[in-house]
Amino acid sequence: MNFSSITPLEWWANGATALSVFLAAIGSLFTWPVGILGSLLFGCLFFEARLYADVSLQVFFIATSVLGWVQWQRAGGPVQAARRHALHAGNLVGMVLIAVLVCLAYGLLLKHWTNAYAPFWDSAVLTASVLAQILLMRGHHQTWPAWLVVNTLSVPLYLQRGLQVTALLYAAFWFNAWWGWWRWHRLQRIAAEA
After folding, report:
1. Is the pLDDT assigned to residue 59 strictly greater than 80?
2. How far from 185 is each of 20, 116, 139, 188, 192, CA to CA, in Å?
3. How far apart are alpha carbons 21 and 172 in whole angstroms?
4. Are 27 and 45 in contact (CB under 8 A)?
5. Predicted local confidence at residue 107, as pLDDT
6. Cβ–Cβ contacts within 10 Å for residue 107, how many?
């Protein structure tokens, strides 16, 4: 990896996003404003790399980060937010099916109307990320398996586009998703015992 070829924009985007993801895993309210900054920076980076679905995703992340910030602040954290927004298995299955359909439709749109690199793969990252973000906003522990899918898809895509630091970060996010999943289960147990 040639670190001298990595732009300051990529470094800053990765740093802000790494901090935001760590803060999400520990259930900190500060995950949201830090995540907004990371999304702004990544939006610029992905535009330069012609990953247009990822640019759209950053706009979505900014909007949902504002909503997640409000939801967690009102509820008192992710565990309490999950209590307000119960997730039933049927709802989760429906959300996954919608994500698959949107992935295919957006991939077709990008393939036929843009010069996007890997339009279907990029769309899969987008739709899985949207699903994971909605689950995160509502405080559901199922957000973490969804982030595992996102990270698994993202690493090779970003490597192919020459975004080595971003690929490395998403590889670290893969491990963080396992830790976040474990941590949120622990938070739920503690809340249930209290």
Report:
1. yes
2. 19, 38, 11, 5, 11
3. 10
4. no
5. 94
6. 21
